[in-house]
């Protein structure tokens, strides 16, 4: 399979933020931006893969600045990494105020997509041709991020399976919650009611 350069599938989507995208505070709904990010990730990944792709996971998304009605939102997507059947697409979102001629960075995220064949099974994607240091850095960063995510997932699973009320209830001290258990569990209320 021939390697494809990053630029082959690089995709930019620009969308005008119309009033129906706004929340009750007059700013753009986060969900609108997430949907556009999914769309551009799909376009970019499918073009590289030469196949339809599905979204498997989305890395942490933080909205750093609000987006206003009337802004032009630009979503730039690049394939940062490919595995066998999966691809990681990096997306940078900026919002342009057309009257002020200003552009602000609102958020960036990474979408993991998997290419699927006509039988709905994952299919192999072409390797990625890295042509500059930025592309090499992004590929290597993704390898590291995948490793960190794997370790975090394992830790989370083990924390979930090791919930021991008697040991873990003290973690509720100082938190903004109350417990009001009934029946045999009510003895645990006492564990942090002492404060
Ligand atoms: C994505 C999907 C095909 C993976 O199925 P699977 O049986 O785990 O398949 P595999 O084990 O062969 O994994 C396929 C690839 O997905 C990757 N993958 C699976 N789960 C993942 C996860 N949680 N995060 C990141 N990558 C993941 C695997 O690492 C593998 O990558 P590789 O081939 O590059 O090594 C399957 O979970 C699916 O169809 N999910 C629904 C996706 C969807 O419909 N999304 C739209 C939202 S409605």
UniProtKB/TrEMBL annotation:
The keyword Membrane does not apply. The keyword Disulfide bond does not apply. One of its GO terms (cellular component) is cytosol. GO terms for molecular function: long-chain fatty acyl-CoA hydrolase activity. InterPro entries: Cytosol_ACT, HOTDOG_ACOT, HotDog_dom_sf, Thioestr_dom. Keywords: Hydrolase. Residues 7-119 form the HotDog ACOT-type domain. CDD domains: BFIT_BACH. It comes from the Bacteria. GO terms for biological process: acyl-CoA metabolic process. Pfam families: 4HBT. Belongs to the acyl coenzyme A hydrolase family. This is Uncharacterized protein (TIGR00369 family). It comes from Marinoscillum furvescens DSM 4134.
């Amino acid at each position: 399979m021939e390697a494809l350069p990053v630029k082959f599938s690089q995709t930019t989507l620009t969308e005008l933020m119309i009033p129906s995208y706004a929340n009750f505070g007059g700013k753009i709904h986060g969900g609108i931006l997430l949907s556009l990010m999914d769309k551009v990730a799909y376009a970019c990944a499918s073009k590289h893969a030469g196949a339809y792709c599905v979204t498997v996971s989305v890395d942490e998304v933080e909205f750093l600045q609000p987006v206003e009605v009337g802004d032009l939102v630009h979503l730039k997507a690049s394939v940062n990494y490919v595995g066998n059947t999966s691809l990681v697409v990096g997306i940078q979102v900026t919002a342009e105020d057309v009257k002020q001629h200003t552009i602000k960075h609102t958020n960036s995220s990474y979408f993991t997509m998997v290419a699927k064949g006509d039988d709905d099974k994952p299919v192999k994607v072409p390797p990625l041709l890295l042509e500059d240091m930025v592309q090499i850095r992004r590929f290597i960063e993704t390898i590291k991020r995948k490793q960190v995510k794997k370790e975090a997932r394992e830790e989370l699973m083990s924390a979930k399976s090791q919930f021991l009320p008697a040991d873990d209830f003290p973690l509720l001290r100082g938190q903004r919650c109350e417990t009001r258990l009934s029946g045999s569990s009510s003895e645990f209320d006492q564990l942090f009611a002492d404060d």
